[in-house]
Design a protein that fits this description.
Chain B: InterPro entries: CO_DH_flav_C (IPR005107), CO_DH_flav_C_dom_sf (IPR036683), Diverse_Substr_Oxidored (IPR051312), FAD-bd_PCMH (IPR016166), FAD-bd_PCMH-like_sf (IPR036318), FAD-bd_PCMH_sub1 (IPR016167), FAD-bd_PCMH_sub2 (IPR016169), Mopterin_DH_FAD-bd (IPR002346). Chain B: GO terms for molecular function: FAD binding; oxidoreductase activity. The structure holds three protein chains of three kinds. By secondary structure, chain A is of the alpha+beta class. Chain A has five helices and five strands; from the N terminus they run ββαβββαααα. Chain A has two domains: 76 residues, Beta-grasp domain (Ubiquitin-like (UB roll), Roll), CATH 3.10.20; 75 residues, Orthogonal Bundle (DNA polymerase, domain 1), CATH 1.10.150.120. By secondary structure, chain C is of the alpha+beta class. The chains are: A alpha+beta, B alpha+beta, C alpha+beta.
Chain lengths: 163, 265, 813
């Protein structure tokens, strides 16, 4: 099967590559671009370990063809922190022990990053609902929720201070 | 996944033309059902025609009570439309509870309706709202569109371009999600305009989405949850599987209907 | 896959996509003293056995490993791409029972990109996967093992059984080719239900045996128990099913095989729970004279089932050797459901004899445990762990236990978080609640009357276990206080007013951790003044890099970031027992501490020579050796340079423990049930645990939270369902309900530690405790709610909405 030209921006960097039409975005990221932060955790689009931000929306990169992503701007966990350090969410996941094995963490944080733009000051319930597409088997979620709420508070405080 | 090919259509005409020339082609919009199915090698289209970038198929327009939603509009866009929520809160709320946030960002109303999964949410809304399904060839009334599990009135190359409906005076959707998949085990959309009440049920029926006509007539004269007390859907027509018996689903239909009525107010 | 919901899984040959104590779970991170996890406060409430308030050990230090993980820089097996690497898939049985013949590989071998197809003939030189732990039956004879062949020869015994291994340039090419194998199957009848395995006429899993009985083990004193029952005022009887679970670590298994012909050496890269055990077993299977190095990078959850050796491990090595290229296999989630060892699955009948005051006189248990189709690595032994713990925290004079292992045409069963001990705790804690109902006693009252008292310690149980310390009424009282048990009636009324039913339940569990054994630790001072700790346990997410660093940094006066913990490479680490059974910290932590102390002594000696002072006057702090009370100091880097003998910069220690440790505690769960839909929501959850001593309260709370959610998952959501032909109906997250963030509450967690006197540092272990306490607490709460409102006395796990609704409906009829 003939390969297709795919142009995508990943973490601010333009990438041009050839991919089979049946290739998924997650495989292009992991196998061709070496962006292995997003993981594959299931076959049925439930676990969210592969979550990336595509054109400002959380998507499961295991359920998007690379061809569908042609022209898109993709941000993965690797692109969240600035050159100087960690994103507030990354800091808060560390601070509040929001991870154990770390496998779901890239997807969790990338989803939470978008959640806090959708709802800047979420309630605990909104966080739990907003993270429904991301499974974790280690933490029992309590510290993930705590980390996201703490990050929201921090971001809001920074926003207020800036005004 | 089996080998396939991919074409991104810029217009409805182009998409239909591509489908005409492709062997074993399939339209893809959000792909949230099709892609997992293909990954498990349970579907093997030789060609994929992507409808997600067709400008004419996007967006929500509201004129008084008349609503038109482009088929490539995502669930997230439907859920977050304040204008839509103001005239038809039931459908906005429904869209906001489909699957999970990721699915809502990719999945589209047209894709959901075309697939007619027996546990999908939108078919219930279409049926209860008496929506018209617009395609590149014709307009089909929702009542004529859904034809049993995963079956619709669509022809091979036909493309849903939009849905339209007149917003009812009151409406609400209530569902009980499957604890594993989050698909509806029973989802009930209730719409009322004057004494015209429609009750459509998804997730529970053996033949997919259906209208619960007995409930509709009882509610026509008394739009209150209590009007359903003596009624029951036919257990013989309900799905039964490892997640719940037909009796359980019949119960859920009634409970969700009562909750939707209470919410519609 | 939407279509796959509720469908029979069409796993035909084309959809191929489809040491004892040391392999059981998330190991434990325990700690110094008590703490609460309500809000951000960490409250200490028991004096530490040995570490001061400024000690690193006992502090909630943030994890060293997290910086990489939160950046997406973790490195799991499936993240590793080697140059020239090939990809493999396994062709699996579509049927639960039958025979097969491979008619032709020709078409598959000719397919694009295909390099190799291995079938049973190609691996005839390999041994079957070894199982261990079989005990003698009452007849004094050990039943035979039924080991798993690397590839099936002519019979398949469960859906997913491995038939062939296809290697190609890409995964998709391998999958394409897997569909082209021509295999003729002849299906046979299957037996699936554990309770049906021994029925007359049940299809045999092993036709050369006279039944599907895998073995029988007995424990206790049948005569004394019969006597107790004869004298009983009342006998309470329960029957239930301990549901089959799938571990569902988020990282599915993966393995990479490499072959170095010049050095006659294999390298296996695999997510394991310990490289040494994996190496020993895989070497035994390979059976050739080549060396084997095993490397384990980051591991995305283990919970027991990632500790075993699976067929794909020798297969990637064989393929790599034949092809001279690295070969990677990455399992998908469906394969995880089909073939990674399942957990639990018992059918239980239990009876308790009581006197007129509700005091326990005797306990009789008849338990049937599913083995699946084969004897899995430790599978035959797992139920036994539960058997020995069957009397729990209670002083029960007589025990009569009959355990029967049975074969069915299902995925093999082995250790899953807790491994036998959750089953035991669930059995006794739900039985005790049933006794309380029968005797019209409050659940706390019947427990109080029967607890083993502190003054009875050390206490030898009828199961043969020796409890060293424990204050069971102490943590139960504290948990009741924290849970506001007394306020329950008011909350019940509030629920009733909302049309809901409400229940409260407790479980006072005890478990056994750190089974007799040892775990050596090797520490070394490096040239730059940092210290390395080499140890053969394996973090699967528990935070070993931080916990061991705390022990060693404490002894040498370093920041934990100056201590590097190294695991997961048989070339680097001489030996090790791996992680499982909550053993890493009770054993490895003590060894790390002692090795650190030994190194500190050596460092002081060198410093004393360099600084011309007595070793006793040398203090180690801030990465320096300082002469106390002076400004004379030397950095650890300079000490490393000053050493004349490299041995002076190294130390090791190996703490051995002859008896297990016994963590215990009380969980209290409160549920609210919507009778219209049957959904049970956990609305309050309180934990008071005795882990002996706490190493890092933050890590400890994390272990408990995660464990509790796995226990709640078993109680309310998770169920592995086969149909009568042996097709797995719950083969994906479409049908197997894993808890989501919205399914669980926040937890109130506190420790009330009574230091162990078996363990040198008082540590008891904590990796599995959450799971062990949670399932019975949750089910006792659900049963309490249903009993109060409808008189229902029993419901099986999982108490799904449909199951609860059915129970209510039956009670109303």
């Amino acid at each position: 099967m003939s390969k297709m030209q795919i142009n995508i921006t990943v973490n601010g960097k333009k990438q041009e590559l050839l991919a089979e039409p049946r290739e998924l975005l997650i495989h292009v990221l992991r196998e061709r671009l070496g962006v292995t932060g997003p993981h594959v955790g299931c076959d049925t689009s439930h676990c969210g370990a592969c979550t990336v931000d595509m054109d400002g929306k959380s998507v499961k990169a295991c359920t998007v063809f690379a061809a569908q992503a042609n022209g898109a701007d993709i941000t993965t966990i690797e692109g969240l922190g600035g050159p100087d350090g960690l994103h507030v969410l990354q800091q808060m996941f560390k601070e509040h022990h929001g991870l154990q094995c770390g496998f779901c963490t890239p997807g969790m944080i990338t989803r939470a990053y978008r959640l806090l733009q959708e709802i800047p000051n979420p309630s605990e319930e909104e966080v739990r609902f907003g993270m429904a597409g991301n499974l974790c088997r280690c933490t029992g979620y309590q510290n993930i929720v705590k980390a996201i709420l703490a990050a929201a508070a921090e971001l809001n405080a920074a926003k207020e201070a800036a005004q | 996944m089996y080998e396939t090919s991919y074409h991104r259509a810029e217009s409805v005409e182009e998409a239909a033309k591509k489908m005409g020339t492709a062997e074993g082609g399939k339209y893809v919009a959000g792909g949230q059902t099709l892609i997992p199915t293909m990954k498990q090698r349970l579907a093997s289209p030789d060609a994929l025609i992507d409808l997600r970038h067709i400008p004419d198929m996007k967006g929500i327009s509201i004129n008084g009570k008349d609503v038109r939603i482009g088929a490539a509009t995502t669930h997230a866009e439907v859920a977050s439309s304040a204008d839509l929520d103001a005239v038809c809160p039931g459908i906005a709320s429904l869209a906001g509870h489909i699957g999970d946030p990721h699915v809502r960002h990719m999945g589209t109303i047209g894709g959901s309706i075309a697939n007619n999964d027996p546990a999908a949410d939108y078919p219930a809304a279409m049926l209860a709202l008496g929506a018209a399904i617009h395609t590149n060839k014709r307009e089909i009334a929702a009542g004529d569109f859904f034809a049993g599990m995963f079956e619709t009135a669509l022809e091979e190359d036909e493309i849903i371009t939009a849905v339209s409906f007149t917003a009812p005076e009151k409406c609400a959707y209530s569902k009980f999600p499957n604890p594993a998949s989050r698909y509806a085990m029973a989802g009930v959309f209730v719409a009322r305009t004057g004494d015209d009440v429609r009750v459509a049920v998804t997730g529970a029926g053996m033949d997919g989405v259906f209208r619960w006509e007995e409930a509709e007539s009882a509610l026509g004269s008394n739009f209150a949850a209590s009007a359903l007390e003596g009624l029951a859907v036919n257990e013989g027509e309900m799905l039964s599987d490892i997640h719940g018996s037909a009796e359980y689903r019949a119960n859920l239909v009634k409970v969700m209907a009562m909750r939707a009525i209470a919410e519609a107010g | 896959m939407r279509e796959s919901r509720d469908r029979i899984y069409p796993l035909d040959n084309r959809t191929a996509s489809h040491m004892f104590a040391n392999l059981m779970a998330h190991a434990c991170i325990c700690f110094r003293v008590g703490m609460t996890d309500q809000g951000n406060e960490i409250k200490m409430n028991v004096a530490p056995p040995r570490f001061g308030s400024k000690s690193l050990v006992g502090s909630p230090l943030r994890r060293k490993e997290d910086d990489a993980f939160v950046r997406g820089a973790g490195c799991y097996t499936g993240d590793i791409a080697k140059e020239n690497m090939l990809h493999a898939v396994v062709v699996r049985s579509p049927m639960a029972s039958g025979s097969f013949v491979i008619d032709s590989l020709d078409e598959a071998l000719a397919a694009s990109g295909v390099k190799l197809i291995l079938t049973a003939e190609d691996v005839a030189h390999m041994s079957d996967l070894p199982a261990m732990g079989m005990r003698k039956g009452p007849d004094g004879i050990k039943a035979p093992y039924r080991n798993i062949p690397v590839l099936c020869r002519d019979k398949v015994r469960y859906v997913g059984d491995a038939i062939a291994f296809v290697v190609a340039e890409t995964v998709e090419q391998a999958r394409d080719a897997a569909e082209l194998l021509e295999i003729s199957f002849e299906g046979a009848e299957a037996v699936i239900d554990t309770g049906e395995a021994l029925a007359d006429g049940a299809p045999p899993v092993w036709p050369d045996a006279d039944s599907n009985r895998a073995y029988v083990n007995t424990l206790g004193d049948a005569d004394a128990t019969a006597e107790a029952f004869k004298n009983a005022h009342h006998v309470t009887v329960i029957d239930f099913v301990q549901n089959r679970l799938v571990s569902n670590y988020m990282e599915t298994r993966a393995a990479i095989g490499d072959w170095d012909g010049e050095r006659n050496r294999y390298t296996l890269t695999v997510g394991s729970q310990g490289v040494h055990g994996t190496r020993d077993i895989v070497s035994r299977i390979l059976g050739d004279d080549a060396e084997l190095r095993v490397i384990t990078p980051d591991v995305g959850g283990g919970f027991g089932p990632k500790g075993f050796v699976y067929r794909e491990y020798p297969l990637v090595l064989e393929a790599a050797k034949r092809l001279g290229r690295p070969v990677r296999w990455v399992g998908d989630r469906t394969e995880h459901f089909l073939t990674d060892a399942h957990g639990r699955d018992n059918v239980v009948h239990a009876e308790m004899a009581m006197d007129g005051e509700g005091r326990f006189l005797g306990l009789r248990i008849d338990l049937t445990a599913a083995m699946g189709a084969y004897t899995h690595q430790f599978g035959v032994a797992i139920p036994w762990f539960g058997v020995t713990m069957s009397t729990g925290v209670y002083d029960i004079p007589a025990l009569d236990f009959t355990l029967t292992g049975v074969f069915t045409h299902t995925c093999p069963v082995d250790a899953y978080r807790g491994a036998g001990r959750p089953e035991a705790a669930f059995l006794i804690e739900t039985l005790v609640d049933a006794c309380a109902r029968d005797m019209q006693l409050a659940p706390d009252e019947i427990r109080r009357r029967n607890f083993i008292r502190p003054d009875q310690m050390p206490y030898r149980t009828p199961g043969g276990r020796l409890y060293d310390v424990g204050e069971f009424a102490g943590h139960m009282d504290r948990a009741m206080e924290n849970a506001d048990w007394a306020g329950f009636p008011a909350r019940l009324e509030t629920s009733k007013a909302r049309g809901r039913v409400r229940g409260i339940g407790m479980a006072s569990y005890i478990e056994a951790c750190a089974f007799a054994g040892s775990e050596p630790a090797f520490v070394a001072l490096q040239d730059d003044g940092t210290v390395t700790v080499d140890i053969g346990t394996q973090s699967n997410g528990q935070g070993h890099a931080t916990a061991y660093a705390q022990f060693v940094a404490e002894t040498i006066g370093l920041d934990i970031n100056a201590v590097e913990v190294i695991q997961g490479d048989t070339d680097r680490i001489a030996k090790g027992g791996g992680t499982g059974g909550s053993r890493s910290i009770p054993l490895g932590g003590v060894s790390a501490y002692r090795a650190g102390e030994a190194l500190a002594t050596k460092i002081r000696k060198i410093a004393s020579e360099e600084l011309e002072a007595s070793p006793d006057d040398i203090e180690l702090s801030g990465g320096q050796a300082v002469v106390a009370g002076t400004d004379k100091a030397i950095s650890l880097a300079d000490i490393a340079k000053a050493a004349t003998d490299p041995a002076d910069l190294k130390a090791e220690a190996e703490f051995k423990q002859d008896e297990a440790t016994y963590p215990n505690g009380t969980h209290i769960c409160e549920v609210e049930i919507d009778p219209a839909t049957g959904i049970a929501e956990v609305v309050r959850y309180t934990i008071v645990d005795d882990f002996g001593m706490t190493v890092n309260p933050m890590l400890l709370a994390g272990q408990v939270h995660g464990g509790v959610v796995q226990g709640i998952g078993q109680a309310l959501l998770e169920q592995t369902v086969y149909d009568e032909t042996g097709q797995l109906l719950t083969a994906s997250f479409m049908d197997y309900a894993l808890p989501r963030a919205g399914d669980v509450p926040n937890f109130s967690f506190e420790t009330r530690n009574v230091p162990s006197i078996t363990n040198a540092l008082g540590i008891k272990g904590a990796g599995e405790a959450g799971t062990i306490g949670a399932a019975p607490a949750a089910m006792n709460a659900v049963t309490d709610a249903l009993y109060r409102a409808y008189g229902v006395t029993h419901i099986n796990m999982p108490a799904t909405p449909a199951a609860v609704w059915e129970a209510i409906r039956r009670a109303r009829e």
